[in-house]
Design brief:
The protein is an all-alpha fold and 72 residues long. The chain contains three helices and no strands.
Length: 72
């Protein structure tokens, strides 16, 4: 796989606000995270709809946070 570029990272940054993968915020955003289960129903429905329609994009965002996120 190719190294992520600016477009990949920007896409992950913007999508991370909505998808909140476990690594989102690198431990520094825990106080403001909205877990999907605690999100308003309309937001949960949008997340589910987006995840169902674009599973490859959601998986790509999750892998970028998992593999590229700095932990310090």
């Amino acid at each position: 796989a190719a190294e992520p570029d600016f477009t990949d990272l920007q896409f992950a940054a913007l999508s991370g606000l909505w998808l909140m993968p476990p690594e989102y915020g690198g431990g520094k955003a825990d106080g403001v995270r909205i877990d999907k289960e605690a999100a308003p129903p309309a937001m949960r429905a949008d997340i589910d709809r987006w995840s169902g329609a674009y599973p490859a994009a959601v998986s790509h965002v999750a892998s970028l946070y998992r593999e590229q996120r700095m932990t310090t």
